[in-house]
Amino acid sequence: MSHLVRKSYNVSILVYHFVCPAKYRRAVIDETVDQVLKEVCLEIADRYQVEFLEIGTDKDHVHFLVQSVPTYSPTKIITMIKSLTAREVFARVATVKKQLWGGEFWTDGYYVSTVGQHTTEGVIRQYVKNQGHEKDYKQLHAQQLNLF
Asked: Alpha-carbon Rg of the chain, whole angstroms?
């Protein structure tokens, strides 16, 4: 669950739901790519003020439920996630680079929504779990945090 982030001059709860399709919507996300994505995202969380509340994959796209601080815009967050994960997937999983001949792992676009009054975090988590083909969905990471 999300939690209050307390900084010197602000207190915030900013949670974003991102969906990033693989380039050409190719089904390149397998167990090896899952592991690389999880490792890189947890490294990003250690380095930056970004927490991955949940990461979920289907064969051709990834859902990220991310909490961050007001310093980072949604565009900056997803740019960082996409660039670092793509670089590491190509470096660690050679077969993916062969399937995506253009040298890009992600499509240029992405989907983002905020988690708030009209869309609760629980609704987004349930959507991420139930979208696509249930047998293809894998929950790579989930974090449970207390509000207070």
From this structure: 15
